[in-house]
TrEMBL record:
Keywords: Oxidoreductase. Belongs to the short-chain dehydrogenases/reductases (SDR) family. Signal peptide: none annotated. The keyword ATP-binding does not apply. It holds the Pfam family adh_short. Residues 6-190 form the Ketoreductase domain. Gene3D superfamilies: NAD(P)-binding Rossmann-like Domain (3.40.50.720). GO terms for molecular function: oxidoreductase activity. InterPro entries: KR_dom, NAD(P)-bd_dom_sf, Sc_DH/Rdtase_CS, SDR_fam. This is NAD(P)-dependent dehydrogenase, short-chain alcohol dehydrogenase family.
Length: 253
């Protein structure tokens, strides 16, 4: 899929990995719609990105908001959806005097899985209406999982379950959407230097970086964005999950 001149939707784009993807695509002359619940962050991001960017403040888990958003986009050709919105809470199953809250478990699955899927279904519908481009494609969907899908740590039961579901959705989505010339890929990042991590004490960041075999540091959001760009441009990538993690395999805790 060509980037230049095409329109891409990016969720979670007010911050971190989503914002980095928005920058990368704008640098490559795409138009982007940044989607997030953080309106202040969206405004700042769009200001930085200039006229190729606009935003939609919405909750990706909200069925009606998503429906209305895609309705309002009708007539505009969407070439891709990059799902980066997500949360990463930590909670143990057995706490001192309590157990894991069911509410926080459902909330994590609701945002990371159902929210992503809510956007996927409408984006797929919109992209299926496109004419095929010169590469024979109508659209591309990229989701964000995590290495926690494979090596969830203690305290990550909800997060790991949610990212495992994102991994598991990849192949059936790619298989079904193949007939509509839409590819589906997932990136499973390791430890990335986004606000989520940069708010931690420097020693903790250092310790996390030291756990990575090579290179011994946190991943940069730009490295995620470059991979997203490659996935968009490489038509033969489909139905697969790519780890972006410097060979880290997370320990139990
Ligand atoms: N940073 C890491 O180390 C890392 C590692 C593996 C996976 N990931 C995944 O990458 C994705 C992006 O993470 P990040 O590090 O950029 O985090 P981040 O917190 O910087 O960005 C996530 C964005 O998602 C938005 N968001 C949350 N819930 C939403 C909702 N219901 N509707 C719309 N927007 C919503 C937030 O407002 C935020 O702007 C997440 O799915 C995260 O799980 C991150």
């Amino acid at each position: 899929m060509k980037i230049e001149g095409n329109l891409f939707l990016i969720t979670g784009a007010a911050s971190g990995l989503g914002y980095a993807v928005a920058c990368q695509l704008v640098q490559n002359h795409a138009s982007v719609v940044l989607i997030d619940i953080n309106e202040e962050g969206l405004k700042k991001a769009v200001e930085q990105l200039g006229i190729q960017a606009r935003y939609e403040c919405m909750d990706i888990t909200n069925e009606l908001q998503a429906q209305q958003f895609f309705k309002q986009l009708k007539g505009q050709k969407i070439s891709g959806l990059i799902n980066c919105a997500g949360i990463a809470p930590a909670e143990k199953v057995l706490k001192k005097e309590d157990v894991h809250r069911l509410e926080s478990f459902s909330r994590t699955l609701n945002i990371n899985v159902i929210g992503s899927f809510n956007m996927i279904r409408f984006a797929a519908q919109a992209m299926s209406q496109n004419e095929v481009d010169t590469g024979g494609e109508k659209g591309i969907i990229i989701n964000t999982a995590s290495v926690a899908a494979y090596e969830g740590q203690i305290g990550q039961v909800a997060y790991a379950a949610s990212k495992g579901a994102v991994v598991a959705m990849t192949l059936p989505l790619a298989r079904e959407l193949a007939r509509d010339a839409i590819r589906v890929m997932t990136i499973a990042p390791g430890i990335m230097a986004t606000p989520m991590l940069l708010n931690m004490p420097v020693e903790v960041q250092q310790a996390l970086g030291d756990m990575v075999p090579f290179p011994k540091r946190l991943g940069q959001p730009e490295e995620f964005a470059k991979l997203a760009q490659h996935i968009i441009e490489n038509t033969y990538l489909n139905g697969e999950v790519i780890r972006l993690d410097g060979a880290i395999r997370m320990a139990a805790k």
